[in-house]
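Input record, target 12 of the design panel.
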């Protein structure tokens, strides 16, 4: 009966998809391909009137299998993607984009550009308006490839100019790529979103031709426009641009302050701390201590010698002058329960000493001030340093012993 057929079909379809999922999770690409073939064949034999709409599923599963299958070829992948483009106009541009990404990953730049150009000329009634966002992406990636071509021509031109030659044809071709790239890149970054690669390329174009005001406006808009999602990279790009332009430290600090609020573990926090420490304003030096303590809260910074050097330098300055010990105390109060095990265990002391003595020196100084002369980390490193007859470590031991009362004041 029709009802029985529908029921059996639904059960077999669900079972087949379950087998495919299991094969994908176990990275059994050949097995997954066989089940997908069965799944497609079963759909072709289905005579029920129920709307199944499986084209997107076939597209996504098939793409994943062909990407990983050891026997798949670029020719097969291209053929598969062309078939997927004809399965549904609603997904046409998405399939085109994925096809382009695959071509780019395989170094087929010209083929990718050709596919983008064909997709850009695609029109299908009302679907054209509905897929406006996808079309913007198509145009943006074509602009990105125009930028790539512009960059190649620019390098050729720069090489020729070094040799004392000028090539008018290359220069004209470069300007042609610039115009095409700039138009499409400018359009995509007007739409609220995360457009890092497009922004970087557009700013590079503007800077090369000396349009620094436009570049600044683009980066400010990308970083500060509330319609755009919070994006740490936007502030990184703005900071790097300001630095290239030789802007004041006040502008640089302002850009990095927002980055610190969003991502306190960002690698630029060392630059931020260094600038703050050089400031004559007490408030900024206080912020500098907060910044470096916050960065070292993250596991990725545990063995960052520069970060520990920054902290050690500032702690040493404060302890020597005996001014602003309350700064250290405030930062340490929220960390004294977990930093000792996280940073200053005997195990870490041994490992740091063996792998990086400069790191162990900086950490030992901080550990000795924060935890006192009986701290396991400090005792081990200072003992090993003195045993190796290293003057630096003997001076470290004397410094911590002399300022041990500071530890008592900090520990409260």
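The sequence produced for target 12 reads:
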């Amino acid at each position: 009966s029709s009802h029985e057929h529908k029921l059996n079909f639904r059960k077999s379809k669900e079972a087949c998809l379950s087998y495919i999922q299991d094969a994908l999770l176990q990275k059994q690409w050949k097995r997954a391909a066989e089940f997908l073939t069965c799944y497609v064949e079963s759909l072709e034999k289905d005579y029920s009137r129920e709307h199944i709409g499986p084209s997107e599923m076939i597209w996504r599963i098939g793409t994943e299998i062909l990407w990983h299958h050891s026997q798949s070829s670029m020719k097969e992948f291209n053929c598969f993607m062309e078939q997927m483009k004809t399965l549904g106009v609603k997904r046409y541009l998405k399939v085109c984009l994925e096809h382009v990404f695959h071509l780019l990953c395989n170094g087929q730049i010209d083929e990718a550009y050709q596919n983008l150009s064909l997709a850009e000329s695609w029109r299908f009634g009302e679907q054209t308006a509905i897929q406006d966002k996808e079309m913007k992406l198509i145009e943006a990636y074509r602009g990105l490839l125009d930028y790539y071509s512009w960059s190649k021509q620019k390098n050729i031109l720069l090489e020729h100019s070094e040799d004392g030659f000028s090539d008018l044809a290359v220069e004209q071709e470069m300007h042609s790529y610039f115009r095409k790239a700039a138009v499409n890149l400018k359009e995509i970054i007007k739409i609220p979103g995360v457009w890092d690669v497009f922004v970087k390329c557009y700013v590079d174009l503007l800077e090369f031709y000396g349009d620094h005001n436009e570049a600044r406006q683009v980066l400010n808009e990308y970083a500060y426009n509330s319609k755009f999602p919070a994006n740490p990279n936007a502030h990184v790009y703005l900071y790097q641009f300001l630095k290239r332009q030789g802007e004041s430290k006040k502008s640089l600090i302002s850009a990095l302050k927002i980055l610190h609020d969003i991502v306190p573990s960002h690698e630029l926090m060392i630059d931020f701390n260094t600038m703050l420490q050089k400031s004559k304003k007490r408030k900024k030096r206080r912020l500098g201590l907060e910044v470096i303590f916050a960065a070292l809260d993250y596991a990725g910074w545990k063995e960052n010698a520069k970060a520990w050097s920054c902290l050690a330098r500032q702690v040493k300055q404060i302890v020597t002058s005996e001014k602003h010990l309350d700064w250290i105390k405030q930062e340490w109060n929220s960390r004294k329960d977990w930093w000792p095990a996280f940073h200053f265990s005997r195990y870490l002391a041994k490992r740091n000493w063996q792998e990086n003595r400069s790191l162990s020196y900086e950490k030992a100084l901080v550990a000795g001030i924060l935890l006192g002369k009986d701290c396991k980390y400090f005792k081990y490193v200072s003992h090993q340093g003195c045993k190796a007859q290293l003057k630096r470590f003997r001076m470290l031991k004397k410094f911590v012993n002399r300022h041990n009362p500071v530890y008592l004041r900090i520990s409260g």
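Residues 47-52 have pLDDT under 50 and may be disordered.
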